[in-house]
Amino acid sequence: SAIYELSCEAYKHLGKTSNYYWIDPDGSGTLGPLKVYCNMTEDKVWTTVYHDLQMQTSVGGSSLEKLSVLQLNYSATMDQISAITSSAEYCEQFISYSCKMSRLLNTPEGNPHTWWVGKANEKHYYWGGSGPGIQKCACGIERNCTDPKYYCNCDADYKQWRKDSGMLSYKEHLPVSQVVVGDLDRPGSEAKVSVGPVRCQGDRNYWNAASFVTSSSYLHFSTFQGETSADISFYFKTSASDGVFLENLGNTDFIKLELKSATQVSFSFDVGNGPVEIVVRSPNPLNDDQWHRVNAERNVKQASLQVDQLPLEVRKAPTEGHTRLELYSQLYVGAAGGQQGFLGCIRSLRMNGVTLDLEERAKVTPGVKPGCSGHCTSYGMYCANGGKCVEKYNGYSCDCSKTAYDGPFCIKDVGAFFEEGMWLRYNFHSPGTSMKDLVSRTLLSSADPEITAPDLSLNKEELSFSFSTTKSPCVLLYVSSYTPDFIAVLVNPTGHLQIRYNLGGTKEPYNIDIDHRNMANGQPHTVNVTRNGQDIVLQLDHYPPTSYRLPATSDIQFNSPKALFLGKVIEIGKIDQDIYKYNTPGFTGCLSRVQFNQIAPLKAALRLTNASSHVHIQGELVESNCGASPLTIPPMSAATDPWHLDSASADFPYNGQAIGDGVNRNSAIIGGVIAVVIFTILCTLVFLIRYMFRHKGTYHTNEAKGAESAESADAAIMNNDPNFTETIDESKKEWLI
């Protein structure tokens, strides 16, 4: 059977993003798995279970029945939902009653006309925004009901539509299984009921942990009841090479889990037929201070042990003999009976579907501390794009503030749609700060102690963003200075990309022209430019990076940076003639995840950050991911890059002014030769194989005709279906390579 995670929290810690997942809240217990929606937000994980009642379900109006019962059927059983709510830190469910001459709770004194039924079939006479035992609606608690004599808007019994709504958040009463509506039997009485899905946040079981500080410390719990079946799972983290995780004894029977060595976990037990031991050996050390998961199961037929994703070790039970595990002592977690105890952390310890409260027990036990630290060693790799992992008492979160991304793992592009004539300016220093402080803090990355701020110039820049547009020419990005220095990224009138550096020392600005590709084709494109002194490296989309060098006479300092512009340059003083021309009518299209050194100007404009005061916007900035580039295709080698073959000069994808030392040209030619040789060998092989099999009876398949040359099944379908290729214009083909 498939092993499902216990909760949405567990999926988040596998680096999974928001989606529908199967969870199994009681492990291999009786409940079985259910499908929920896991919403991974920046700091919380929400588990959502849906039901079938339509929003704004009408009741009354035509019929004159006394009571109307609305039944909610969930995509899970009540027991499954209870397992989620009981382990959650907080749950809520939205409920709303819209009324026209239909009273709700009949406040202040009367018997409620309408109620809802929750867990365990109990009736509840409070409404959303209020709490158990308080016969009021939200407006009665906040004292803002339409008629202050009543504690619900609907209780005023008006002929106009009114509404009472809010969150039910006493999780022991959730979910809502029925809403019973009364007061519909008068002419003109009407009501509409809405109930949202159940949403729960946090998983107290997943992070319930204890740290064992000395090798003689232990926690004890009541005897484990696992006579015919035992299912034990937990996570551990240690730098010690051995120690007992847990043990429970009987007269001769026992059950025990231990770390035998740095690479061995052992599960041993005796049900009266002599001791049995199952060992999982790991190819890598398990005492690496990272979380590892252990799952041990035993029933009358067999026993098994699994560690992380390593192969399951299974031992069949003897056909005759004893089958019941009879235990008497307490269950010891950690050191037991003078043995070498476990040093480190154990968390989420479940015995037959019940999570043991290690945290509570640790609070009153010497040598054991509640909770655990150091989650970033295990989960920090999920914080992408320069996001920093932040330790939390129960888990971790990703701090995306120094990146151009957001979302729980810093992988969500922050981007915007620019209408014609719109522009954004980011000032590198705001009126309140000294230029020196700010430049040294944001523009110079902290890793470069050799650059001091007084000369206020940059020896290196890192610039990355993605964009899409169909209009050319235009200015994508421009960095101005208090001197004639500037950096610009432009789309020229023919739709090609140009990167322009003016650092002084040369008559004309230094241009990198990428002439092979139309960039104004409405597709998302990514641009990464890094300059270190004279050396510039450019990477475009998923093509290999290309190197350029500034002319020998060029200055390598970008002096006194002043502001960064997106979409248009509005700067005082003399401006480059081409850029001036490209400025009208301005950029139309999408820009996404713009980052210049430590600065993310678009994010500062769209999210309230401490840099937001540096931003000035002309026009209305609309957040959109239309410029987000799906960089899922790995970089190509020179030999397989099709642009080498169909461009007029088969040197490399873009023909800059920097073929300089000819190394790039040589490597490309060598790549080409190798490709031709491989191709010839392949052709010969195909010819030989066909020749050999020609006499062995023919074998026809009904495959797509284009399949021989296709790299995958999808490609074969595309090669074979004429409509498919026609719908993809030239510009999009590079995404299918």
From TrEMBL:
<feature type="domain" description="Laminin G">
    <location>
        <begin position="440"/>
        <end position="626"/>
    </location>
</feature>
<dbReference type="GO" id="GO:0007155">
    <property type="term" value="P:cell adhesion"/>
</dbReference>
<feature type="domain" description="Laminin G">
    <location>
        <begin position="208"/>
        <end position="372"/>
    </location>
</feature>
<keyword id="KW-1133">Transmembrane helix</keyword>
<feature type="disulfide bond">
    <location>
        <begin position="345"/>
        <end position="372"/>
    </location>
</feature>
<keyword id="KW-1015">Disulfide bond</keyword>
<keyword id="KW-0130">Cell adhesion</keyword>
<comment type="similarity">
    <text>Belongs to the neurexin family.</text>
</comment>
<dbReference type="InterPro" id="IPR013320">
    <property type="entry name" value="ConA-like_dom_sf"/>
</dbReference>
<dbReference type="InterPro" id="IPR002181">
    <property type="entry name" value="Fibrinogen_a/b/g_C_dom"/>
</dbReference>
<feature type="domain" description="Fibrinogen C-terminal">
    <location>
        <begin position="1"/>
        <end position="51"/>
    </location>
</feature>
<keyword id="KW-0812">Transmembrane</keyword>
<keyword id="KW-0677">Repeat</keyword>
<feature type="transmembrane region" description="Helical">
    <location>
        <begin position="668"/>
        <end position="689"/>
    </location>
</feature>
<feature type="domain" description="EGF-like">
    <location>
        <begin position="373"/>
        <end position="411"/>
    </location>
</feature>
<protein>
    <submittedName>
        <fullName>CNTP2 protein</fullName>
    </submittedName>
</protein>
<keyword id="KW-0325">Glycoprotein</keyword>
<dbReference type="Pfam" id="PF02210">
    <property type="entry name" value="Laminin_G_2"/>
</dbReference>
<keyword id="KW-0732">Signal</keyword>
<keyword id="KW-0472">Membrane</keyword>
<dbReference type="InterPro" id="IPR001791">
    <property type="entry name" value="Laminin_G"/>
</dbReference>
<dbReference type="GO" id="GO:0016020">
    <property type="term" value="C:membrane"/>
</dbReference>
<dbReference type="InterPro" id="IPR003585">
    <property type="entry name" value="Neurexin-like"/>
</dbReference>
<dbReference type="InterPro" id="IPR000742">
    <property type="entry name" value="EGF"/>
</dbReference>
<dbReference type="InterPro" id="IPR050372">
    <property type="entry name" value="Neurexin-related_CASP"/>
</dbReference>
<keyword id="KW-0245">EGF-like domain</keyword>
<dbReference type="InterPro" id="IPR036056">
    <property type="entry name" value="Fibrinogen-like_C"/>
</dbReference>
